[in-house]
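PT: before anyone asks, these are the final sequences, not the draft ones from last week. 546 residues across everything. Please model them as a single complex and drop the result in this thread when it's through.
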Amino acid sequence: MDKGYIENGFIVDLSNARKTSEIIYELSRILDIPEAQNKQVCLKLGNVALSETELTSIKALVESMESEIEFISTTSPETIDSAKKLDIEISELENVVEAPDFEMEPNVSPEVETALDKIFGDNDFDEEEPEVKEMEEIYAEIEEDDDEETLEMKKEAEKLPTLYIKKTIRSGQSITSDGNLVIIGDVNPGAEVAAKGDITIWGILGGIAHAGKEGNTQARIRALKMNAIQLRIADVFARRPDGVNTPFIQKTNEFEPEEAKIYKKNIIINKLLEN
Amino acid sequence: MSGRVIVITSGKGGVGKTTASANIGTALAKAGNKVVLIDTDLGLRNLDLLLGLENRIVYTIVDVVEERCKLKQALVKDKKNPNLCLLAAAQTRDKSAVTEEQLKDICEKLQKDYDFILVDCPAGIEQGFQNAIAGATEAIVVTTPEMSAVRDADRIIGLLEAKEEMESYRLLLNRVRPNLIKSKDMMSVEDVVEILSADLIGIIPEDTGIITSTNKGEPIVNDEKSLAGRAYMNVARRIMGEEVDFMNLEEETSVVAKMKKFFKGLMGKEK
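LR: through. Structure below.
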């Protein structure tokens, strides 16, 4: 070290890294190259604060690739403390030769980053909740401007006979009703239910539901829990947005009764219970 | 333009027909080909899930056959790749809803506009299988290095050979585990090829990433770092007529595998 260079080794400049996961990811990528094995490695760690455990992990990673940490350089006091506890040499050595800048961001795939963040915890990883638009205003907007035709349609469901089914509708099964449809049970993904009038599901709706299949735009779909893949009312169609990862098990004890209906040629879903 | 109709079949269930269909289709489309995937597993459809297109299906192949919609309307475009589309199976019907002639007819119509028509075949050798192979002139037989799967593949190859229109068939060896082959606990690639005396089109290593990709509805070929993804990409290139060497699976250890090893070591130390 005093010689100003290391024999049989190289310096890894990670001073651009902003968090532990990036350091681990980049390091594992670099050490993966066969030329990087069996070497003395010097790490420039920038100002990322590493705990003793994290530094142990990094050390173990380097050792798992048959190399050794010669020394590290860091500007973070916490990392210095951790390194002292682990007997890792610290150096303020600067690169005489300018290390080429490698860009950190585009290389880390989001999956790896998330996985690593989960392991090491993370300060600047904040999972943004998808913005839920305030629906109340829209509800308030929905005026009851019923002309005769819509009034007729609204009343239609009440006049129709109702098919009452007390079982779980599984994938591949399809239930069609010439009137309304009431299902006491779940409608699993892959199942289809359709009715001329309203559909009410006393359970979890996970499949496809089509209310007002003969054109009644005032038909409604209600479920204790709305996880539908697709909703159709009359000839209006809505699908579950992409990227919504519903959990593997949809069963739950927390129910939030919801109702789907047409509003301005789109299907909207509103909660039936307001807390 | 006359596209190639390739059926992906296996006989035995669970060897990866649907995974192979989704990945080869995506890979071919990524290479710039126009591709249609047809799911013929009526009543037990899965291909839409693997592609993450479940929520977009309005019309299925049965709707096309029963003339409730036009063929074009039933083609679901992929989220990422505009060259790729899916003709989904009906979930609420069974295999008898479509006949061999109807499927053949659909394939012929699609051939005009697409480079590749990949038909995902159901397991078994009954009507569903007969339907699936009806329009195809090429086949990819998926098998795993297990006796039961190889036996079934042999049966399938026999049936394919008996079909006049079938011009060629090639073998896709799935879920290969090099370390098990090394320790002689698994049939080697050579063994399978010898038993079946068929040409190989690809060797796909066992990859846990497949499970995640299936659950996410995102074919693994989109992940260029994954070993299985690269293997599928190579399969697509071979289908297009390129000469691609088979990967040496033993030497390939991905970054991910190394990191796993390292985390395992770490856990051990903490105890």
